[in-house]
Amino acid sequence: MIENLTPLQCWDLLQQNPAAVLVDVRTKMEHLFVGHPPGALHIPWKEAPDWQLNSNFVSEISHNIPDRSVPVLLLCRSGQRSLDAAKALEAVGYEHLINIVDGFEGPLDANKQRGKLGGWRFSGLPWQQS
What we know:
Elements: E1 2-5, H1 7-16, E2 21-24, H2 28-34, E3 41-42, E4 46-47, E5 52-53, H3 57-64, E6 71-75, H4 80-91, E7 96-100
Parallel strand pairs: 1-7, 2-3, 2-6, 6-7
Antiparallel strand pairs: 4-5
């Protein structure tokens, strides 16, 4: 089952359940330059410049998170890639998948800019840049 939770709900879950794992599925460049939650496991779902699916995504998750019953929270820019990644993990037996709605940067506003309407950073949650 895939749940859709807000960044604040996800932060609460991470605080209450130390076994839960936060996975950042954005590209290496997004992770490095836009910022990321401290301690998040970084495994890209797709990678620039050609935006091809990471064919090793599921095996990398399985290697890093062998227990398929622990909560796995997935984060991308706005919540779509993370949902696709969650579906792939559900297909191989992960039981508690959480898509972080609005992702790290949130939806586009009227000026086609992110970060002003929602997302991890907008919610005031911990993040850092490399």
